[in-house]
From TrEMBL:
Organism expressing this protein natively: Vibrio scophthalmi
GO biological process: DNA integration
Domain of life: Bacteria
Pfam name, any one: Resolvase
Signal peptide: none
One function term, GO molecular function aspect: DNA binding
Catalytic residues, chain numbering: 15
Name of the molecule in the record: Transposon Tn21 resolvase
InterPro entries: Homeodomain-like_sf, Recombinase_CS, Resolv_N, Resolvase-like_N_sf, SSR_resolvase
Swiss-Prot/TrEMBL keywords: DNA integration, DNA recombination, DNA-binding
SUPFAM superfamilies assigned to the protein according to its UniProt record, in alphabetical order: Homeodomain-like (SSF46689), Resolvase-like (SSF53041)
Domain (Resolvase/invertase-type recombinase catalytic): residue spans on this chain: 7-144
Length: 194
C-alpha cells in the first residue's frame, strides 16, 4: 500500500477515570501532530477495551499505531505478542515513544526479541508489585492493622438510610436499591457494624 495513504494513530490510555491522559497526549502530539488521537480510560489487563477494539478494527496495511510506552497498549505479555504478530501480518507498524520514538519492527528477529523482553519485564514488574502488596496486607492482618477498603462517607450515609428502611420492613435488596447501593455493600456494612 502507498505510504501516502497510511494513517497514524496515537493510542493514549490510563487505567481509571481519575488518572490524567494529558501528559501522554501532550508528549505524543508534539512528535506526531498529524496523528489521529484515540483516548481511553480503561484497565490494561486485557485487550478488550472499547476504543482500542474500534481502533484495531479500522487499521489498514501501512498504518502506524503510536503509544507512549508498552504498558499503555497492554499489560499481558502474551496478549501484546499476539497483537503485534497480528499487526505484522496486516502490515501495521508500532511506535513506542519511550524507546526514543523508533519503530519497533517486530518483523525482524531483533525487533521481536526487544519487544518480547520489554513486555515480559513490564509484566514481571507488575507481578512483583502485586506480591509486595499482598505481603503488606498479610503483615497488616497479622498485626491487626488491616481494615480493608474503607467506605466513603456517602456509602456510610446510604447504609444508615438503608437500615432505616430495614427497620420499616423492607427487604435488604429493596433497601439497598432504594438508597442506590449494592446489596453486597449493605450486607458487608451490616456485618462490620454489628
Amino acid at each position: 500500500m502507498d505510504n501516502q495513504l497510511s494513517a497514524q494513530y496515537i493510542y493514549a490510555r490510563v487505567s481509571t477515570l481519575k488518572q490524567n491522559l494529558e501528559p501522554q497526549v501532550n508528549e505524543l502530539t508534539k512528535s506526531y501532530p498529524n496523528a489521529t488521537l484515540v483516548r481511553e480510560k480503561a484497565s490494561g489487563k486485557d485487550l478488550r477495551r472499547t476504543e482500542f477494539e474500534l481502533l484495531n478494527e479500522k487499521l489498514n496495511q501501512g498504518d502506524i499505531v503510536i503509544v507512549y510506552d508498552l504498558s499503555r497498549l497492554g499489560r499481558n505479555t502474551a496478549d501484546l505478542i499476539n497483537l503485534v504478530e497480528d499487526w505484522n501480518k496486516r502490515g501495521i507498524s508500532l511506535i513506542v515513544q519511550n524507546l526514543g520514538g523508533s519503530v519497533v519492527d517486530t518483523s525482524t528477529a531483533t525487533g521481536k526479541l526487544m519487544f518480547t523482553v520489554l513486555a515480559a519485564v513490564g509484566q514481571m514488574q507488575r507481578e512483583i508489585q502485586q506480591e509486595k502488596a499482598q505481603l503488606g496486607i498479610e503483615k497488616a492482618i497479622s498485626e491487626g492493622k488491616f481494615k480493608g477498603k474503607q467506605q466513603s462517607q456517602k456509602t456510610v450515609e446510604a447504609c444508615k438510610k438503608a437500615m432505616e428502611y430495614l427497620d420499616k420492613g423492607l427487604s435488604k435488596e429493596a433497601a439497598a436499591k432504594a438508597v442506590g447501593i449494592g446489596v453486597a455493600t449493605l450486607y458487608r456494612w451490616i456485618k462490620d457494624n454489628k
